[in-house]
Amino acid sequence: MTAATPSAPATRAAGTRSWLALALLHTRFQLLESVRVPIAVIGNLLFPSLALLFFVVPQPAVAEHPLASVAAVAQLGTFAVMSACLFTLGAGVSEDRQLAFDPYVRTLPAGAGPRLAGRVVNAIVFCLGAQVPVVLIAVLLTAASTSPARFLGGIAMVPVVAVPFTLLGLAIGYAMSAKAAIAVVQAVLFPLAFAGGLFLPPEAFPSWLDALSQALPSRAARDLVVQVTTGIEGSAWALPVLLAWTALFAALAVLAYRRDEGRRFR
């Protein structure tokens, strides 16, 4: 008697389970690697919270106005997402590429998918964690108030707006050395945050900066999150702009990864 040959659906299901198991393993590994450097975790959590504490809470016109407070929290929460994605993936990937263990892992037959998935999930976990102190400060020290549905909608927007900045982080991480990546992340993050209305509301911008800002991914992400959490209608261009930048960053990430593969493993 011959053993029964597994059917194609069973084989695909087994392959999917193996892929997911490997992705979870890489996620766990990346999280452990991250928490072993506590200052990196604290830095991601601290800056958006301090910005809220020092620049929003002392302003009665914002802190004592429910909708204005929620909008400020949404803006700084979006900055926290950008920061976590760019530093975790941009700086993190470039540092990992310099380790001797990295070339070995990339030659394993599992392929790049599970490892990249682990990196992305790790970044999203940091993005969600960075929201906790921002929300706590807003609840305790401002008049921020929104409905449970809008609050949950804001949390659901975290992984959505993380997508383009995750791809940008991967593009930087695979294209540059560790020293260059850190400098580029800082040079990209803060100008995008300022021009995107994450520190100052776009209503305070001059007309030329407001027009320029609406073409940026940071402004598009900010407008979408503010609209979801406050109900205030944002720019109609926000979603198309974010999708366009996502496509561009995806192309850059794939190009950087393939270039790194060709340079290091040919």
From TrEMBL:
Keyword Transmembrane in record: yes
Keyword annotations from UniProtKB, A to Z: Antibiotic resistance, Membrane, Transmembrane, Transmembrane helix
Subcellular location: Membrane
Keyword Transmembrane appears in the UniProt entry: yes
Transmembrane parts of this sequence: 37-57, 69-89, 123-145, 151-173, 180-200, 237-257
Main location: membrane
Single GO term (MF): ABC-type transporter activity
Pfam families: ABC2_membrane (PF01061)
Assigned GO CC terms: ATP-binding cassette (ABC) transporter complex
ABC-2 type transporter transmembrane domain span: 28-226
Topology of the protein relative to the lipid bilayer: Multi-pass membrane protein
One GO BP annotation of this record: response to antibiotic
Lineage: superkingdom: Bacteria
Name of the protein in its database record: ABC transporter
Taxonomic path: Bacteria, Bacillati, Actinomycetota, Actinomycetes, Micrococcales
